[in-house]
Design goal:
With 481 residues, the protein is α+β, with helices and mostly antiparallel strands. The protein contains 16 helices and 18 strands. The strands form 5 sheets. It has a 5-stranded mixed β-sheet with strand order 2-1-5-3-4. The N and C termini lie far apart (54 Å). The structure holds flavin-adenine dinucleotide and FE2/S2 (inorganic) cluster (2 copies).
Length: 481
């Protein structure tokens, strides 16, 4: 990731004022263009509130399941491949299709369980889960397979820990996790040789290697240690990253156009620049902003909230950048939490372990924040604007003395996090403003920073209590009594 892109302090001052949304959007497009399992799709008549899951099942791709409908079980997991506006690289995101608005996949490639293999010709992941008894009723299986598929597409040689973590947003009710995990761990770089990825396509572990098992010689990946092979190795298909569904060439050049969908009663806007977003907010301060949709979709489904005007801002490049400064990190408010984890790791490297304590604390907290599918779409802005008392991030942002930059057509407002929360789900964000970025200071000399989350289980659970502590020790000597 290249540091230093696109966060300019007073950019909002130059925003042109418009008086009506009709004027602003007169030449906006009303057609979604994306790919499903390698096939180009255009959709121009769509209820703007449709989720990706409703759409996929509606076109007959019923391998993707509907379980909880609230991002908690992972049965609806699909992969959304896209050029990440933060890293500018292709990222294969495991996503909960039950929460994702269809409008969010414009310009992206949606891959479902049907796209990677079938009963006659299963994908290596499908084969190993089946042969390894990782599926009984099969309801959770497509979601589990797609979480593992996303992991392998991003990194064909994952560590044991990476494999385990890839499932933190998937539940299975009947198989039990052991066989699922065992089958999945056959892809980790220690358990195998990395298969075709690292040895140029020949495959190894799961092919018979002259009776010798893995070319690395041991289940721990230590080439010097010989392991006695007691049973014939199963003849699994190797995973070959070069033969997977390619990222469509047309999407590399996809022109992101602003979109307006729906009718007079219910409209969805998909601005592609910060300026367009601020203009919408200035005309319609009550417009509902949608980022990762991990809160808003729950409000729509379970709290019967209805929004006449929704604005999807999840891919606006200006809200997805970050920049390292001498004494603070500025991070776009709608970076995904997965990207925030990586940015914090870079920040610890850059500032060192003492000054980088706030970033180490955020990274640690994010590890226990929801599951990977949620972290792939959810944003710090969504966490802040929701102002929920069970938020995992907000206590750290307050204790680090972070400053929030709010933007509107009128200009920027710098709000210290200590003044942002006014009460239960009430914030100091002006109605015509959006949260644009966060300035997170490094720790000063003598400061110590730690964050804690206590929940009923470690992964994918809401906190019983959160704490973030910053202790500042001066160098005064203890007073003589
Ligand atoms: C299964 C599940 C597990 C979860 N686990 C956790 C957890 O462990 N810890 C935790 O803290 N939370 C958790 N959450 C809550 C949620 O994921 C977070 O609050 C997340 O940060 C919301 O981000 P989002 O981008 O998805 O927000 P959205 O749902 O898109 O939006 C949430 C709110 O933020 C506003 N908003 C979004 N972007 C902006 C912006 N730039 N400016 C102003 N307003 C904006 C929206 O208008 C909306 O009011 C969980 C949710 C689910 C469904
Ligand atoms: S259906 Fe449970 S996470 Fe989507
Ligand atoms: S196999 Fe039945 S829920 Fe997982």
């Amino acid at each position: 990731m290249a540091p230093g892109i696109g966060i300019h302090e007073d950019s909002a001052a130059a925003v042109e004022k418009v008086t009506s949304l009709a004027q602003l959007t007169e030449d906006w497009d009303d057609t979604l263009r994306f790919y499903v399992n390698g096939t180009k799709v255009t959709v121009d008549t769509v209820n703007p509130e449709v989720t990706l899951l409703e759409y996929l099942r509606g076109i007959g791709l019923t391998g993707t399941k509907l379980g909880c409908a609230e991002g908690g079980c992972g049965a609806c997991t699909v992969v959304v491949s896209h050029i990440n506006p933060t890293t500018k690289k292709i990222y294969h995101a495991s996503v909960n299709a039950c929460l994702a608005p269809l409008v969010s996949v414009d310009g992206k490639h949606v891959i479902t369980v049907e796209g990677i293999g079938n009963v006659k010709d299963p994908h290596p992941i499908q084969e190993r889960i089946a042969v390894g008894n990782g599926s009984q009723c099969g309801f959770c299986t497509p979601g589990i397979i797609m979480s593992l598929y996303a992991l392998l597409r991003n990194d064909p040689s994952p560590s044991e820990h990476d494999v385990e973590e890839a499932f933190d947003g998937n539940l299975c009710r009947c198989t039990g996790y052991r066989p699922i995990l065992d089958a999945a761990q056959s892809f980790n770089k220690n358990n195998s040789c990395g298969m075709a990825s690292s040895n140029g396509g020949s495959g190894c572990c799961m092919e018979k290697n002259g009776g010798g098992g893995c070319c690395k010689g041991s289940s721990a990946g230590n080439q010097d240690e010989k392991v006695e092979i007691k049973f014939p190795q199963p003849d699994f298909k190797p995973y070959n990253p070069d033969t997977q569904l390619i990222f469509p060439a047309a999407l590399r050049k996809h022109e992101f156009r602003p979109l307006v969908l729906g009718n007079k009663r219910k409209k969805w806007y998909r601005p592609v620049t910060l300026e367009q977003l601020l203009q919408i907010k200035s005309i319609h301060p009550e417009a509902k902003l949608i980022g990762g949709s991990s809160e808003t979709q729950i409000e729509i489904k379970f709290k019967a909230m209805r929004y006449a005007c929704s604005v999807y801002l999840g891919d606006i490049p200006e809200l997805r950048q970050f920049e390292f400064h001498d004494d603070y990190l500025e991070v776009g408010a709608n970076v995904s939490l997965t990207d925030l984890e990586n940015i914090c790791a870079l920040a610890v490297e850059r500032y060192g372990s003492a000054a980088g304590q706030p970033f180490a604390a955020i990274k640690k907290q994010l590890h226990y924040f929801a599951g990977r599918q949620i972290r792939n779409v959810a944003s710090p802005a969504g966490n802040l604007a929701t102002a929920s008392p069970i938020s995992d991030l907000n206590p750290i942002l307050v204790s680090t003395n972070t400053t929030l930059i709010a933007k509107s057509v009128g200009g920027d407002k710098h709000i210290p996090m200590t003044e942002f929360f006014l009460g239960y789900r009430k914030t100091a964000l002006p109605p015509d403003s959006i949260i644009a970025s966060l300035r997170i200071p490094i720790a000063q000399k003598g400061e110590y920073m730690r964050a804690y989350k206590q929940a009923k289980r470690k992964d994918d659970d809401i906190a019983i209590v959160n704490a973030a502590l910053r202790v500042s020790l001066g160098d005064q000597r203890r007073p003589q009594l």
